[in-house]
Amino acid sequence: MQLQDQINEQAAEWFSLMQSADVSAKDRQEFNDWLSEHVDHQQAYEQIELVWQTLGDVSGTAEGAALSRSVEPFSVQLKSFLSAPVAAIKSLVAAPKYAMGFAVVCVAVGLLLMLRPNEPITTYYSTQAGEIKTIILADSSEITLGAKSQISSRISDSTRSVDLISGEAFFDVASDRQKPFFVRVNNVSVEVVGTQFNVQKIRDVVSVAVLEGVVNVFGQTNKDSLSVSLPDAVLTAGQKVVKASGRAFESVTAVPPSDLGAWRLGRLIYRDISLADVVTDAGRYFEGKILLQSEDLADVKVTMTLRTDQVAQLPQMLAQTLPLEVHVVSDKIILRKK
Predict the structure, then answer these.
(1) Domain that holds residue 249
(2) Three-point CA angle 274, 276, 277, nearest 5°
(3) Do residues 225 and 130 share a domain?
(4) Contacts for 25 with CB less than 8 Å, ≥ 6 apart
(5) In three state form, how does the secondary structure of 58-91 look?
(6) Less CB within 10 Å around the terminal CB: N or C of the chain?
(7) What is the pTM of this model?
(8) What stretch of H or E contains 182?
(9) Closest CA to 47 of 10, 95, 93, 97
(10) CA 180 to the chain's CA centroid
(11) What is the CATH number of the domain that holds 298?
(12) DSSP secondary-structure letter at 224?
């Protein structure tokens, strides 16, 4: 189930509980903790509150009883597929004294789309260790999501944008000159009309590389529209730019076309990359953890190629050319300086 579905369902559960007169101080503290975990939690809860206010308090009326009966099958179905419930209140939702509140919340969640049909919906996608997934967006753009990666997308009649939350993604964007496509990651924004490019986030470093077309790259902005700003870098096919958080963009460099998105074919290619970044990035294709515990080796530059199914052998490969010792502890592979 997509993360946004889980957030909406959790918000519905919390809203049901908050309407009860039996809310304890502990409940309120856990609710506040949930709200503060992520801005999307607060937005989902506020949307339900808004619709609740629009519906009015119908719980004590004949219309309210009819409403409860009409949505009862839906509420039962909704509760049945909750995959990430709030443990503290899961049992309360099924209790009769919360049935009316939950029923109205179910209606409220359903009405969100009817009341705000033109507002873009945020959809989340993620992958597990070693998993590569292809996603087709509503505008026909195609995204290949790398291992242990996560994105959120907002596609509507007026907006096309994706946030790369973690990991790596290759974009094949459907051309639409009237509606540019934006990708945001950390303090970097990418603007395209229709092209193929790769975006990678390793720790606090973002890299953008272009396979086809033209890409505008901006720094320090959260805007959805960048048309009034001049890009910090303009990339064409075979070019790459890198930016670390808090630093200026590095110079644009050439990148072999065969390197671009090679991970989609099961090959990891690193050219003059810090050891810490290699370990972090390759670790996305490994079920366990690879940890570098020698800070004085973190910035050592590494150039190497390996298959994604060879990542478990990466520590031994590195130890052949670097002064490293490899220690295995449970599911962790620890690298230390000799």
Answers:
(1) 122-257
(2) 65
(3) yes
(4) none
(5) CCCCHHHHHHHHHHHHHHHHHHHCCCCCCCCCHH
(6) C
(7) 0.65
(8) strand 181-185
(9) 10
(10) 21
(11) 3.55.50.30
(12) S
Confidence category of residue 100, pLDDT binned at 50, 70, 90: very low
Q: Minimal CA–CA distance to 102: which of 57, 66, 81, 71?
A: 71
Whether the pLDDT of residue 167 is over 90: the answer is yes
Q: SS3 for 267-306, per residue? A: EEEEEEEEHHHHHHHHHHHCCCEEEECCHHHCCCEEEEEE
Q: Is 203 left (phi over 0), alpha (psi -120 to 50) or beta?
A: left
Residues 314 and 250 in one domain: no
Q: Which residues contact 313 (CB under 8 A, 6 or more apart)?
A: 306
Give yes or no for residue 146 having a pLDDT over 90: yes
Domain count, the chain: 3
Q: Closest Cα partner for 92 from 34, 18, 32? A: 18
pLDDT per position as a tens digit, 126-139: 999 999 999 999 89
8 and 82 both lie in a single domain:
yes
Structure tokens belonging to residue 250:
């590095």
- The whole-number pLDDT of residue 85 equals 39
* Distance separating alpha carbons of residues 325 and 128, to the nearest angstrom: 28
* Predicted pLDDT at 337: 87
